[in-house]
Write a structure and sequence with these properties.
By secondary structure, the protein is an alpha+beta fold. Helix content is 26%, strand content 29%.
């Protein structure tokens, strides 16, 4: 593989997941900035946590070999080809986390903002928008409330993150994960505040949005309805407290090793090399174990930073360029090259 680079412009199937049309450039491992310095054992452990759920023979074979290897770096270098997948849009890395929120099982006092289970009529097609759900009371009185939160912004960002932990009044906690949505596309509140001239681009963060909503009462709560997407949850408290939330592959995520991608371009379960630019550069091998409503495009990725307030503060500041390189089974990469 060394020294071999070739642009492949095809649409291909990656492990049962369709890859969008675009350019696929096979790189050399020497082209990956910081590759030598990474903890390849940590990356392999995360890869092994979900690779057994991949049905394609290429991946199941590599999963078996990976479980037996004593040299993780050599395992990746021998069996995978680093492939730059591009679709013409700029690279964008953002961050997400699992919030820890205060809540109650029943409505009362400050706990006025519900987390809803999936209603049967929200079956994946476009249903009511966020504004319509909240203003019409379409979910009221149906027993769909899993818990009630004390802050509308916490409730909103729980929808954006897709999972979280809720600390209850009795000292116990529950964990909720994504169950479905209302079929509407995500729209960014931060971008809307910038468009209206309320915030500058450099000011956008979870804390700044939270402050603006709190300071502006009904107008602040109304801006949250600019995003028509509404997420429904399920209780997943069976996941141990020391493990991360469940991602799209129904396995726990790992801070700074799990990443959300667009499965139209990157197969879920694939290792991906992240070269994030910005004030806090990241050079690390992660695994594509999640998806997100706002994650669209071959070079779009959302890095999971972990659980709790500190993780949230860091994740909320990430909006950087760079490069993401997918590690594909080497046989598949050669097959793509021969398709030219």
């Amino acid at each position: 593989m060394r020294g071999w680079m070739r642009a492949i412009c095809v649409a291909a199937a990656f492990g049962g997941t369709a890859a969008g049309a675009g350019s696929h450039t096979i790189l050399d491992y020497a082209d990956l900035s910081g590759w030598d310095a990474d903890d390849h054992r940590a990356a392999l452990d995360v890869f092994l946590s979900t690779c057994r759920d991949m049905d394609d023979p290429d991946w199941t074979t590599l999963c078996r070999i990976g479980a037996e290897t004593e040299d993780p770096r050599r395992f990746f270098e021998i069996h995978f080809a680093p492939t730059l997948v591009e679709d013409g849009t700029p690279t964008l890395f953002t961050g997400y986390f699992e919030p820890e929120l205060d809540g109650a099982r029943h409505r009362g006092g400050p706990y006025q903002y519900p987390i809803h289970a999936l209603p049967e009529e929200a079956d994946g097609d476009e249903w009511l928008t966020r504004a319509e759900i909240e203003k019409s009371g379409a979910l009221d009185g149906r027993g769909l409330e899993i818990a009630w939160l004390d802050d509308p912004v916490d409730a909103y960002f729980l929808h954006v993150q897709g999972s979280g932990r809720v600390r209850l009044q009795d000292g116990t906690a529950i964990r909720v994960g994504y169950a479905g949505k209302n079929g509407h596309s995500y729209r960014s509140i931060g971008k809307e505040l910038v468009r209206r001239g309320i915030l500058g681009e450099h000011e956008v963060s979870i804390d700044r949005i939270r402050d603006w909503v709190a300071e502006n009462g009904a107008e602040g709560r109304e801006i949250l309805r600019h995003n028509p997407s509404y997420v429904f949850f399920r209780e997943v408290s069976h996941v141990p407290a020391d493990r991360g939330p469940l991602g799209a592959m129904n396995r726990s995520l790992t801070g700074l090793r799990s990443v959300a991608v667009d499965p139209a371009h990157v197969p879920l379960g694939a290792p991906v090399w992240v070269e994030k630019a910005g004030r806090a550069p990241i050079r690390a091998l992660m695994v594509a174990q999640d998806t997100g409503a706002a994650v669209e495009g071959a070079q779009r990725a959302d890095i999971f930073f972990g659980t709790g307030e500190a993780a949230g503060r860091t994740a909320g500041t990430i909006r950087d360029g760079g490069r993401m390189v997918v590690l594909l089974p080497i046989q598949r990469a050669y097959a793509l090259a021969e398709a030219l």
